[in-house]
Amino acid sequence: MSNESTPTGSGILAADAKDPSRNLDSPVSRDTRRRVITASFIGNFVEWFDYAVYGYLAVTIATVFFPESDPQTGLLLTFALFAISFLVRPLGGFVWGHIGDKVGRRTALSLSILIMSGATFCIALIPGYDTIGIWAPVLLLIIRVVQGFSASGEYAGASAFLVEYAPAGKRGLYAAVVPGSTAAGLLLGSLIAGLLTTLLSAEALQSWGWRLPFLLAAPMGLIGRYIRTKLEDTPAFRELAAEDHADKTPVSSLFRNHWRQLLQAVGAVLLNAVGFYVILSYMPTYLSSELGLGETESFLATTIALVTYIGFIFLTGMLSDRYGRKKVLISASITFIVLTVPAFALLGTGNFLVIVLVQVLLGAMLTLNDGTLPSFLAEMFPTRVRYSGFAVSFNLSNALFGGTAPFMATLLIAATASDLAPAWYLVAAAVVSLVAVALSRETGKEPLRHE
Description:
80% helix; Growth Hormone, Chain: A; mainly alpha; transmembrane helix; single chain; globular
């Protein structure tokens, strides 16, 4: 893929061109920034494409690996594997944070994408339960754990990389590339899953069709790694390394000197953790399994919502640059508290147009949080522990509440017999995030801290 063919990079760089004084004062060329945007986009895209495919094909995967269970139990077991893979993410956050802050951002990102793409490819090769019995879900679990470890370094590293390369006043817009690429990975996963369910019979999908998307990970991952190895590390990190100021024990320094910011960051991430996986990953399963909407219609509705989400995410990044991170994040929490339950009630009408409009609304609400959070978290911590602070807080919150969100949503529905249970779960997450963000300080207008 050529740099010029990346619409995300071209759009952001075009925005930079409107303020040429920033580019003249910056030691980083536009061509370098273009390559940084492209590398960050592709790498994060590959990482989250897998999570999309696994979530969107969860019903089929359940029949392949848990055929002896009833449909709801099989689905719960499939989402339990999804959740267990997240438990390793805090450990991954410590490891990747240490590598990223001590050795370099580029090294950590190049390794993480190689591990993720290889593990995702291996999922396509696992025989089903009918062939090797209990070893099928065991192997799936092992590979999911490897993926969780890899993914724990991607989102944080790509965000820190972009923020440290961004020109002054554009950090929110640049960092929005990360959730934008995440949504693009989900979008491709949704499109492929919808295409497979439309073109293949249930028997063909269960037999071999579900494996096809996972095979795509290997070539995409190699492309992303190649681009990343051609980049220098960020100017901020190179400056620390040149002065021999890179922290020898960044994680220890994080807990010793920045524990308040760490707690605030964990709370701020909560709405992102729950909202992302409920609205963008679990939703097709919710619509088809809980509300009885056809699988093809469920994928189509989610696909439309994802397209609009990608557009909104960059708008939110620009809004956070103009009005500040806190105002936008607080707005996100308030809209979720007020509108989530009515929105889920409208999903229950079964009207396809209403469902699409509700999903677009929920996605737009989520972008207020998702489009602002990467720059917010990166700016909370100084350069010497930025990767660690972002990775630990983001992955801890996602391990506890993000990876478990599809499982909890399914479990809450079964326990309460209410299709609105996931909505109330989202409201609770929004309340916690609101408090955490309100207690934090505004960082959008300040220069990045290095010490």
